């Protein structure tokens, strides 16, 4: 009987090589790796498919052209085996290692690692164990390498030296990356800060620069994000600074006066203050036609008053309307108020606060309450409410209380909680201390004395920097400022 002959499939073998820099020690160069791996293909009698290589690339991730083409061709079943010199040529990252090994096994690709005293073959159990263990050590090595790099960057930053080869807009690099001022660009940076202080938004600044044909450092048009980066970069104050990307801001290393400043620290901090107040909702990003918009709050519902323009016999009138008015959920009954009336109320309040003959403790707040004590009282009541509701829910779950009883208690408690929240929202957050009274009075007097000379932009900016909120309402049908919170 004739013997059966099985067809032997030719094994197509791919080769992958990598070095992290052009300068490698003897025996680990691209050429040396390729020679050893090609010899292995010859010994096994396999067919060479293709060489995949990544010269001068790190093994920290798979974002490399050579390895990406390798993965694509692997998925397209263009080869049957992959030969590498050592595992760290393929990757030093444990997550990437698991991905690659899993892919290799799913596609039934044979991985041969040639550069150890005993050759590793992924088809064996011991081979798989070795690969995973080696990968762990490779990742530890990479973590240690990163840590050493961070240590070096930290030491350099502590000396006020920069490590970023890209000079920010307004500067160019000198020796040892020291920043040298570029006056033409520096003028634009100063203008950005001036516009922001005047009340311009980031989008408006970007549009203005783009319309003038002023491009960024890389020659592209300005965006809000790019403007924000300039307005928040401490470098423009003459400081060198650095921190790890995932570290909190408190860990930033700052060394002052390392290069010529474009803006002074006071201007920089003023812009940061504006940014914080916009972020926290104390300063409107809306148009500046209405200086009191969003700063004035309603005593009835707590919502903001927004500007409203009307026209009568060719005359334009500015007024303000509570944002809660006309809402389906709660139609606030607060009346509208004219801007001229608001100005009179504000000036009268400034006169009271700035009257040196009055005891400061008597003009702190019109409500004459201990703000912190009142806040603690309300907060405790709200906490007690939460604890009560948890106990009631547990009692109902244990069948110690009926649903009807639970529902009745919850409804009553919810109404009380809503009232407490309203009281807390309307409570001024800060009192004026005797120590900072003079500074506050000076700022308020500046608003009163210069009001008629200010533009609406300047008025809104001054109010926003002075007050977090001004609460208004009617008592006996007369408008009054019932409370206010100063931005100290």
TrEMBL record:
<feature type="domain" description="Resolvase/invertase-type recombinase catalytic">
    <location>
        <begin position="12"/>
        <end position="160"/>
    </location>
</feature>
<protein>
    <submittedName>
        <fullName>Site-specific DNA recombinase</fullName>
    </submittedName>
</protein>
<dbReference type="InterPro" id="IPR011109">
    <property type="entry name" value="DNA_bind_recombinase_dom"/>
</dbReference>
<dbReference type="InterPro" id="IPR036162">
    <property type="entry name" value="Resolvase-like_N_sf"/>
</dbReference>
<dbReference type="Pfam" id="PF13408">
    <property type="entry name" value="Zn_ribbon_recom"/>
</dbReference>
<dbReference type="InterPro" id="IPR006119">
    <property type="entry name" value="Resolv_N"/>
</dbReference>
<dbReference type="Pfam" id="PF00239">
    <property type="entry name" value="Resolvase"/>
</dbReference>
<feature type="coiled-coil region">
    <location>
        <begin position="368"/>
        <end position="430"/>
    </location>
</feature>
<dbReference type="InterPro" id="IPR038109">
    <property type="entry name" value="DNA_bind_recomb_sf"/>
</dbReference>
<feature type="domain" description="Recombinase">
    <location>
        <begin position="168"/>
        <end position="281"/>
    </location>
</feature>
<dbReference type="InterPro" id="IPR050639">
    <property type="entry name" value="SSR_resolvase"/>
</dbReference>
<dbReference type="Pfam" id="PF07508">
    <property type="entry name" value="Recombinase"/>
</dbReference>
<dbReference type="InterPro" id="IPR025827">
    <property type="entry name" value="Zn_ribbon_recom_dom"/>
</dbReference>
<keyword id="KW-0175">Coiled coil</keyword>
